[in-house]
Amino acid sequence: MDSLEEGPQVQVKFVTRQRQFAIPETAIQTPARLRRYGLSQIINLVLQNEGEKQRPFDFLIDGEFLRTSLAEYLEERNLSTENVLTIEYVESMLPPTPLSSYEHDDWVSAVQVHRQGGFLTGSYDNHVRLWNRQGECTQILAGHTGAVKAVQWLTSDGDNGTLLSGALDRSVLAWEYNHSDNSYSVLYECRGHTAGIESIALNATGDQFATGSADSMIKIWTTTVPKTSDHIEEVTETRKRRKTAKDDRILKAPILTLSAHTGSVSAVVYNPTAADTLYSGGWDHSVRVWDVENHVNVTTKNCEKVVHALDYSQHSGLLATGHADPVIRLWDPRTEDSSVVKQTLSGHQNWVTSVSWSPSSSYMLASGSYDGLVKVWDIRAKGALYSLSHGKGSKKVFSIDWSDDIMLSGGEDNQMKIHKVQDMSGRADALA
Amino acid sequence: MPTTRPTKKAVAPASTAKARPAATKKTIASEPKSRKRTVQEAQRDSDDDEFGDVAIDMASDDEDMDGDVEDDDEDDEVDAFPEEEGQDMSAADLEDDNDEEEDSEGSYMDGDSIVDSQEENEGDEAEEDDIESDFGDLEDDIDPNFGHNLNEPRPVESDYNPIKREYPEIDPEYDSDSSTEENENTVGNIPMHWYDDYPHIGYDIHGKKVMKPATGDELDKFLSTMDDPDSWLSAHNFKEGQDVKLTAEELEIIRRLEGNRIPDADYNPYEDQVEFFTSKTEIMPLSAAPEPKRRFIPSKHEAKRIMKIVRAIREGRIVPRKSGHVPPKPKYYNLWNDAEDKPREEHVMHITAPKMKLPTHDESYNPPAEYLPTEEEIKEWNDMDKEDRPKNYLPQKYNALRNVPGYGQFIQERFERCLDLYLAPRVRKNRLNIDPESLIPKLPSPRDLQPFPTRLAVEYLGHEGRVRSVSVDPSGLWLASGSDDKTVRVWEVATGRCMKTYHLDELVTSVVWGPSKEVAVLAVTCGYKVGLILPEKIFSPELTLHSEEYLKAGFANSATSEVNPKATWKQPTPAEFEQGIRVWVHLQKPVKQVTWHRKGDYFATVAPDANNSAVLIHQLTKHQTQQPFKKTKGAVQRVMFHPTKPMFFVATQRYVRQYNLQRQELVKTMMTGVKWISSLDVHPAGDNLIIGSYDKRLCWFDLDLSSKPYKTLRYHQQAIRSVAYHKRYPLFASCADDGNVQIFHGMVYNDLLQNPLIVPVKILKNVHERIDALGALCVEWHPTQPWLISSGADHTIKLFS
């Protein structure tokens, strides 16, 4: 403790929302030169954690992570060293550890984790792959004639399950698989888009899904499996049929088409808490909020860049968007103002093509970018918490998905990479 | 007074004896003062005293009566003091006056009665008035008669002798400073030894001699001093010749003088100040009288006087002096002042003489050794002609400054300097004082001109040869590229994924997407052919089908129409058809460029070698080919359709010509001023165009403005290969063999009066590696986003956002 007596001192009061790490809330004299590590040591000292039990902590002052020394922090903000500084400390998120990486035949353009089941990947080889948690490719679903750009789990129940996939061949296919007899079949084909499918989003109740396409349309479909094909007025149907010689699939028409975007719709996401609310972003630089029930474009928010990715956090209520620039933008969809970016996160070097909120934390966010990095962000911190290299070189990352403790990423290097992430669920500080 | 008396008594006998020489026959009334005192004294003291006093007076009257003084005194009394008695009476016996008339006779016994009788002599009638006046005056003053006497001389005794008048006695009591002395010597301030030989020491006021007082001998003096305890307090009065006993007041005065104090004890030098004007402001005015009228009525008199002056000024009789007018002083020139104090003021066109060179080290009296000339140098210098010498001196070393001799050339040099100054014409050089910053045109900051591409976003890798041409389809999703590896590739713009590869048999020089969104067609030039490709699976079935039919329709038409020998439309082979190629157009010469009309029906090709048929316009739907120009001037480099009007631009090596296709006439010829045009693009609005040239220039033409370039930009280090306008954003770009891509903000205003604004906003350096002296070969803008796609000799295509 001798070293703690040196230099200028600051009175700090440590508070926490994690009860298991609570220490008495009294002001402590600490050296101003201390950084996160030093403060973390103090907490561990007070908690009498030793050896293995020592935990790293992060320190929040006014809702912002301390990334400098206390003295620099105070000086930067012109704060007095006389006052008692209240510092909230939270257990640090442990760095994600790469678990494994699985080779595909082509670029991996879409990944999704089922919370209980396995992983789902879509690839540029027109196949949808199913993986179990042990990293075995259980099924390869062939049926698309274009690169699979979007995948979406519907149900996963042991060996059986249903899922959706959208591809550049303009079709969304609903699949049913059975691991036990290693069979799969297309339940129905959703037809209506005139350009490639970019994104699929399932609503909270699971009875509807939305697709965004490069033809600037958003179409809403039901998940019910129809008995017969809907009548679709398609001029090229006969010819296409003849040409591709596909087996007869049950065709499905959209129940609704939302058209307001003037460019490719690159991302759609449902609000998990309000089944009718849909968010979309597109190449027309807009982020739109839709009321699906009333087919109304509620609000439109504009920025200067193409929106590539979009995700909504039910905990923080914020939209995160990835753009054709290296900046992640956070929006509050509830505000009416058309161009208010609540926060920007900078750190990537190239387009951000994929964003995913942590399912359990209102602050955590992951993003994948063309610069070949997956970054984990805490919106309270200035920079990224962790930068994960997706693969060899700086190959583009096309898609990431963050489930509870698993983060999937797929990219140009034909790899689906799995990272083990600390599960934030159940932590008192994870939710705002 | 009582103290002086003994002395007087003692003096009296002597004075009577010595008073005889005074020859005053006439009896003049003695000094009233002294007499009055005597009367008073007589009343107080005994009769003896009184007689004594009178005796002195009598002695002066009558010389002869020496012995019987007292008797004479009695006799003369009646004559000598007729009035005095009366005066005395009035002064002393006031009460008796009231009884004068009654007891007139009885008063004979007294002096009073005598006076009365005399007055009766003067005039009985006046008597009563006099008495009355006396009586009345008694209340006011002591002596009314005395006032009469002073004022007018009264003739004495006889009226017939007017000359002889009896003047009134000088009464020094009133208004006289000598009133305190009874018998003052009047000689004045003279040396008293003049009177040493005389028995008297001067004269009193009446002209009578004042006798020297008797002076006792030393013994007497001594005795007297011994007797008189106050003798030490007495002073000798030389004028009077006697000792005067100093009074207490006089002693006090002396004491005060000795103490350097003001002699008068009563005098207060520090009296309280009596303010003449009080410093206090009175609350109430001194007078309650209202302000007099004259205070506020202007004076008529003054008005008159002023009017008089005014009239005089008007008539010019008075010339008012100008204020501050000072009569000029006469100027004198100091002829003899040859050395002027101040230098003369410089003339406007004065040019200062050039400064003389400052002395250098070798002109020092003790130059460093390396400056000293060697023997050879000295010899050389001496041998040299005087005018050829670089310096007209040789450096010399002296041990001390005092050893330095006078400079022999001084006069000569000074003379030459003067000659130089006098004969050499000096020219004023006008140095422009312009801030170079102000010459730079005011351009907006590139920051304000966003968006424009700044960084590499996507790379499209796969080509194995120079990528000659790139093109983005109207939807903005697909990128086509043609390369020297004899392939045409179609890429997904956002990901960089190569979706299709078309293998052709010749180098692909140009690929262009059909501009129509209804028809998906890609025109490629490949050797002598122009191919039309329908990319499969990329576009929706409807679009694909529509395009298919669109492309196919012409074959039916071409079968009927006559065949143009310069271009033959041909079906592709089945293998090619399977690839996606739908139509071939065979030309006679290698085709370098293909460009679409905005509607997507016509496209034009350039085959520079094909002389007059270099430019051909093809109609897709009819599979027809036209030769718009029977004769082309020069080698055609590029052609372009006007984006809105039926115009056609043809760029030859040096000129760009604008033709009207409907009227089939030349509209305009642009003098580019460059040596070899490499590329051409027309602004989407149609009024401006840019060209790039192999001599590194980029020229912007405003078609409405002039046939000369509006701006010529030389930013590239090497030949410009390609220029391109953005279809939506005010941007244009150029790429060159140096591998750089320049991005400009090129704003064209709707206002015809405002010239286009051109601002270089970004240089993308070394975008493409230089291979075989070729760098970036083609730039193309994304149709909807501010993204730039460039292709280069390094086999890559890059997208910048």
UniProtKB/TrEMBL annotation, chain A:
Gene Ontology cellular component annotations, sorted alphabetically: nucleolus; nucleoplasm; preribosome, large subunit precursor
Keyword field: Nucleus, Repeat, Ribosome biogenesis, rRNA processing, WD repeat
InterPro entries registered for this protein in UniProt: NLE, WD40/YVTN_repeat-like_dom_sf, WD40_PAC1, WD40_repeat_CS, WD40_repeat_dom_sf, WD40_rpt, WDR12/Ytm1
A Pfam short name: WD40
CDD domains: WD40
PROSITE patterns the UniProt entry points to: WD_REPEATS_1, WD_REPEATS_2, WD_REPEATS_REGION
GO BP of this protein: maturation of 5.8S rRNA from tricistronic rRNA transcript (SSU-rRNA, 5.8S rRNA, LSU-rRNA); maturation of LSU-rRNA from tricistronic rRNA transcript (SSU-rRNA, 5.8S rRNA, LSU-rRNA)
NLE domain boundaries: 10-74
SMART domains: WD40
GO MF: ribonucleoprotein complex binding
Compartments it resides in: Nucleus, Nucleolus; Nucleus, Nucleoplasm
Summary of subunit composition and partner proteins: Component of the NOP7 complex, composed of ERB1, NOP7 and YTM1. Within the NOP7 complex ERB1 appears to interact directly with NOP7 and YTM1. The NOP7 complex also associates with the 66S pre-ribosome.
Family, per entry: Belongs to the WD repeat WDR12/YTM1 family.
Function: Component of the NOP7 complex, which is required for maturation of the 25S and 5.8S ribosomal RNAs and formation of the 60S ribosome.
Protein name, as recorded: Ribosome biogenesis protein YTM1
Gene giving rise to this polypeptide: WDR12
TrEMBL record, chain B:
InterPro entries per the UniProt record, alphabetical: BOP1/Erb1, BOP1_N_dom, WD40/YVTN_repeat-like_dom_sf, WD40_repeat_CS, WD40_repeat_dom_sf, WD40_rpt
Keyword rRNA processing attributed: yes
Gene field: ERB1
Source lineage: Eukaryota, Fungi, Fungi incertae sedis, Mucoromycota, Mortierellomycotina
Segments of skewed composition (Low complexity): 9-29
Chain intervals with Basic and acidic residues compositional bias: 154-168
Keyword NAD: no
PANTHER family, per the entry: RIBOSOME BIOGENESIS PROTEIN BOP1, RIBOSOME BIOGENESIS PROTEIN BOP1 BLOCK OF PROLIFERATION 1 PROTEIN
Domain BOP1 N-terminal as annotated: residue spans: 195-453
Protein name: Ribosome biogenesis protein ERB1
WD repeats: 460-501
GO biological process: maturation of 5.8S rRNA from tricistronic rRNA transcript (SSU-rRNA, 5.8S rRNA, LSU-rRNA); maturation of LSU-rRNA from tricistronic rRNA transcript (SSU-rRNA, 5.8S rRNA, LSU-rRNA)
Composition bias type Acidic residues, residue spans: 59-105, 117-143, 169-184
Location of the region described as Disordered in the Swiss-Prot/TrEMBL record: 1-184
